[in-house]
Amino acid sequence: MKDIFDIIKTRRSIRKYKKEVPPEDMIKRCIEAALYAPSAKNSQPWYFIIVKDKEKIKQLSKAQPYTEFLEGAPYVVVALADPAKSNHWLEDMGCALMLLLLEAHSLGLGACWGAIYHPDSQERENYVRRIIDIPKNLRVIACMGIGYPDETPPPKKIKDFNEAVIKVY
Ligand SMILES: Cc1cc2nc3c(=O)[nH]c(=O)nc-3n(C[C@H](O)[C@H](O)[C@H](O)COP(=O)(O)O)c2cc1C
Predict the structure, then answer these.
(1) What is the pLDDT of residues 132-151, one digit of tens each?
(2) 7-164, which class in CATH?
């Protein structure tokens, strides 16, 4: 079993997926991991929709130029937030989706975030709402592509530790 630091260090965004469809339970487990995320005042403002339908996935992939990779994904998890539940719903969602990405990697799946939420425009969210029936009170944060990886990106180049840590008191 891999140590969590190994999982963190070896995760990369995966945008190419094998045709073989992973069992749905694996996708559910990634979402379950997300449910354990920290959130402001433990508000847990998240909701998820699992999309397997190929036609719907194809339509979702056209939400914006950088979500095209979704077309090849056997699953898209649409991540939603209820702003009425938390003053920090965006940060909460970042925490939850990070855990989803890590759990996917730890299970041998590949996943990547497809950005839908945009601070200045709800155009992409409205586009997703035309494809998927989403309760009005929920914001659409992301479309997460998940499947068996069909690419192996090189190890990640990270910011130098001494550049990131700007002071120690
Ligand atoms: C908030 C957020 C939005 C992102 N949106 C997209 C996206 O729309 N399309 C995409 O291909 N990747 C998207 N990504 C993935 C980033 O491009 C990726 O995390 C970054 O290049 C670092 O690579 P790594 O994930 O392999 O470490 C997004 C990531 C985050 C955290």
Answers:
(1) 999 999 999 999 999 999 99
(2) alpha beta
